[in-house]
# Entry
Amino acid sequence: MKAFRNMSIKLKLIIVIIGTSIITLFVAFTTYLGIDIYREFNEMKKNAVLQASLIGQYAAAPLLFGYKEETTEVLNKLTAIPSIKDACLYSPNSGEVFVTYHKTPDSSFVFPVLHNDNASFQNGYFHIFYSIKYDNNYCGSLYLRIDPEDIYTKIEKSVLLMFVLLLVLIIVVYFISLKLQKIISLPILKLAEQTAIISQNHDFSVRLTPYGNDEIGELYNQFNNLLLQILIKQKERDKVLEDLQESETHFRFLFEQNPAMMLIYDLSSLKIISVNEAFIQHYGYQQDEILNMKLTDLYPKNEKEAIIQLVKTLKGLAYTGEWHHVKKDGTIINIETHSHSYIAEDNAVRIVVINDITARKKAEEEILTLNAELENRVKERTAQLEATNKELEAFSYSVSHDLRAPLRHVNGYLELLSKRGIQHLDEKSKHYMQSISEAATHMGILIDDLLNFSRAGRMELKLDKIDMNRPIKDALNILEQDTKNRKIEWKITQMPEIMADYAIMRQVWTNLIGNAVKYTKKRELALIEVGYTEDAQEYIFYVRDNGAGFDMNYAQKLFGVFQRLHSTEDFEGTGIGLANVRQFIKKHNGRTWAEGEIDKGATFYFSLPKI
Amino acid sequence: MVELRTILLAEDNPKDVELTMEALEDSLLANRIIVVKDGIETLEYLRCEGQYANREPGLPSVLLLDIKMPRMDGIEVLREIRNDPRLKLLPVVMLTSSREDKDLLNSYYLGVNAYVVKPVNFTGFIDAVKQLGIFWGLVNELPPEIKNS
# Structure
């Protein structure tokens, strides 16, 4: 079977056609032969029975009368029929063999016992039993043994003829099949041939023309389809390859022509695998020269070991810090690198982007130097400022001392003068003296205020957590002298706890509430409200009154030193209180402002940041 | 009769001296006041040196010391006095125009016995000086070393 499978289609087809023909012909011939033989035998049987009836007619009378001689004579006539080999007649009474006949006299054939009429084929011979009757009277039986050799000869001839015919037919079939197989095998062979050509030339544009619309024709169409698919795929692949090529060119350009210096090295051997144009330009090495170098060759001696250790720990994208590199001409440059690992041709490599930071480093150093210089300058300036501050202190000290002394003297001598003979002076002179005294006293207060203000500026804060209700209570106590004979309606909110200097807060509240008391003195009923608001960043405290108020156009002047919006005649004071408040609040990083309207009252605010 | 001891007034300003003397005019104290014009002179008087080399020995009952003076200021004088074993127990009262914290602190730090700011107002001034004279010249009990000097 295996051998058959490996045969060429042509041979297979021929074998199949011839085989089928042989089998068909053989069956046909054999059937015909069988029928022929069967018919021959029937004919022979019929003839034998006919012969037996003929002999019976002749032998009936002698047999009935027992005439042995006549009977034998009748039997001997059988010599005319060569196929009858033996014959006998049975006596009608006893049934015993009466007379016999042998074709060949020396035959040892033993006749069978009498049997009913019958024709059978046994042991290669026909056996005929025939009852002889005369006028419907049984006259004995005839037995014939017939050799069918005529039939055998006939059969032999027929078989021989058949084989000759078969052979001739097979030869004819062979030649016919030789022609017929081409109808089937040719398209297949053609297909095979084309396939071989296509696979050899890789030309998928070839198209096959089918021989017909049978299965092979369909196969051709499918094959063409397949070729078309391959062609499309090939075009697609070509496009992808082209794109890939373009992309590869693009990326190569990105590396080669990148303005940033780049280097690729092998992670295990540290050999430099590739550098770009920018690198070569900057470092001065030749391409073939650098490709024979290791990463460590770029570093100065004292950094080689450290870089080897660092490389061992590198993973993924990393900033690898600031290092030094040696250029071909020996110049040492400051660099910083970013690098990333990837696998190239089965080797773990690292691409490094190098940034020359020599100039930046130098600039940084310069900045450091400049900073140091600046710091020195600041120190100098601070020292100068401190010196100036000291001078200022000395100035206020001498003001306190030197200005107060002459004032005291003016007062002293005025007093002495008045003691000596004020009674002799006229009213005008007395008024002049009084005025001199008052002016001197006022100047003394001014000087004291000025000194207090300068002290407030120089004062150091003592920040504590304080209950804001307490400095307000203190301020009210301090102001009791001024409030006890007044009709004042107070509205004072419960205050929060804050971080501030207690003494300063007391001073601030005293000044602000004092002002409110002072500027409401002309009101029948003074209304003074002390309260606060807050947000996330700060507290805003305020003192509101229904007093004289002020013109908002001059609101900014309120907090200036010795700035007053009212005459001393109306409201006494030097105008230092709010300046001090501003100074104090500024020290707490707060703000001060005011709102008011002439004759409608005023509100003074200050803020304190939440710490 | 109570023995009146001298009061040493260190004051460079003649007007202040005059007014002080005037203030003490009524009281017996005026005659016992010795005026020195600056720090150096103050120390010379106390140590019986220079122009006071031949003065009658003995220390005043109190030194009324102005701070701002030529040559050597009051604070320096106080320091010298407290460093001098013979003078260090001498009662010293600062009588000055300065209310500066610095001056107050320095004075007390160096062991001043009292600190009086001269009032601008003359009546106040007279009162202050009178009280000082009476207190330190009469009322105050001196340490034996000074009493017996």
Remarks:
- Chain A has five domains: 6-167, 211-254, 257-356, 362-458, 460-609.
- The longest helix of chain A spans residues 358-421.
- Chain A touches chain B through 23 residues (CB under 8 Å).
